[in-house]
Amino acid sequence: MKNLDINNLRENYNLDHIDFSNVRKNPIDLFIDWFNFEKSNNYKDVNACVLSTVSSDNIPSSRVVLLKYLKNDEFIFFTNYNSNKGKEISCNNNVCLNFFWVNSERQVRINGKATKISEDDSDDYFNARPIESQIGACVSSQSEIIDIAHDFTNDVEHFKFLHKNKKIKRPNHWGGYSIIPHKIEFWQGRPSRLHDRLLYEKCKEDWIFKRLSA
Ligand SMILES: Cc1cc2nc3c(=O)[nH]c(=O)nc-3n(C[C@H](O)[C@H](O)[C@H](O)COP(=O)(O)O)c2cc1C
User: Fold this and answer.
1) Using an 8 Å Cβ cutoff, are 79 and 106 in contact?
2) What distance in Å separates the CA atoms of residue 179 and residue 89, rounded to the nearest whole number?
3) pTM value?
4) Per-domain residue ranges for the chain?
5) In the chain, where does DSSP find H-type helix?
6) Whose CA is nearest to atom 31 of ligand 1?
7) Residue numbers in the chain where pLDDT is lower than 50
8) Annotation says 109 is catalytic
9) Residue 130 C-alpha to ligand 1 middle, in angstroms?
10) Ligand 1: which atom is nearest the Cα of residue 142?
11) pLDDT recorded at residue 172
12) How far is the CA of 64 from the centre of ligand 1 (A)?
């Protein structure tokens, strides 16, 4: 049996606080404030977030994806529709996105429903990607089991040979999902584990907010 003795790993959080006397009425505005703060500090992978889905037999699964757009209050990422996450979303489109911005001691948790974006919007994003990423999306059957010695270089070269001087078309199995949020929680680390938490919930067309105990 292996062990890790990490019980005394401990950080204190004291960089910032949430001003509960003056909160944004709309969580999307606060998300944009916090996101832009990360971006303006040139922190790495600011758009990386953990996406959680639940399988048809109620087994949860999480993985990192990249947020690519926040459009009309919807959070958009791209993936292979036949991947594990794609299969799970097709059975249950309740998902959760979690951003952890370690440098700012902040977390944002977003619950919502995921739906495929339009083919035209997926095309637009696919066509704007670097050619290497386009080829990657075409040659990889994400989440499928492959031979342990599989070499993607051969697939890429073969693909390039077949598509020489041709525009690469987005494969049907690859595209975007848009998450329409109904719950967004902001967490700011505070000293002594008495963290600040601000929860927004969608109520018809409005957002209502509540403070949560650390
Ligand atoms: C920083 C980072 C960014 C990633 N971005 C994406 C992404 O935008 N889309 C995607 O499908 N997978 C992305 N991945 C890979 C996923 O975490 C995951 O391995 C893959 O999507 C397969 O997940 P699934 O088998 O649960 O469907 C990223 C991984 C990391 C570490």
Assistant:
1) no
2) 11
3) 0.96
4) 27-120+173-212
5) 27-40, 84-91, 119-128, 131-139, 152-162
6) 64
7) none
8) no
9) 17
10) 22
11) 96
12) 5
